[in-house]
Amino acid sequence: MIDSIFTVGEPQFIEDVINNKDKRVALQQQLMSQYLEYTVVAVKLNIPGPIKNNQYLEKLFALVYKDFKQTIPKIIDEINWNINTGNEAFLIVDENARTIKQLAIEFENYATLGRLFDIDVMSHQSGHLSRSNFDMEPRKCLICGRPAKECARSRRHSVAELQAKISCLYAENIDGDI
Fold it and tell me: Which residue of 1, 76, 121, 136 could cross-link 92, Cys pair, CB 3.0 to 4.6 Å?
């Protein structure tokens, strides 16, 4: 048994993450233009530190993403990325964007490992929806429960502390013999 799911994998640099974000945004824009009447859902993991993908993170993504997909009605199309900066999925859904965002927020808040996921919902009609569109509190920190963005900006918790928490959640919920 190992102590961390972050001991293997190809470290990513900030340039890699930024380049991937640019590609993600471009694909989202393309999908919103291509599917004018539909909702676009982008799903990825929130993973701190340089290791963004390995066999453990792939397994975590696959299992939890499968659970998320079961909550989403009327999936029209799907694109999956398994790249060094992490696993991502893009869904095209024939359902109102607000309805889908509410489902995404519920999943992020209440699914056992949903807090590790970042689920963006957008459409040509609604734009990019956020929790603030629903007068909801921001996401909470995995470690202390404060607003997550506040902890991230102030670097209140170390990467090692966050990775230890994620490794613990993985062991408790996916594979106790990591």
Answer: 76
| Secondary structure letter of residue 133 according to DSSP | G
Q: Would residue 35 count as lying in a domain?
A: yes
Domain extent, residue 42, equals 14-136
Query: To 10 degrees, what angle do helices 97-110 and 55-69 make?
Result: 130
Considering its fold, how many domains does the chain have in total?
A: 1
Residue 146 lies in a domain: no
Which tokens in the block code for residue 150? Answer: 């506040």
Is 152 part of any domain? Answer: no
Strands 86-93 and 117-123: unpaired
Strands (E), the chain: 39-45, 75-83, 86-93, 117-123, 127-129
| Mean pLDDT per 10-residue segment, the chain (178 residues) | 86 96 97 96 96 97 96 96 97 97 94 94 93 87 92 94 95 76
Has residue 76 been placed in a domain?
A: yes
Asked whether the whole model's pTM tops 0.90, one would answer: yes
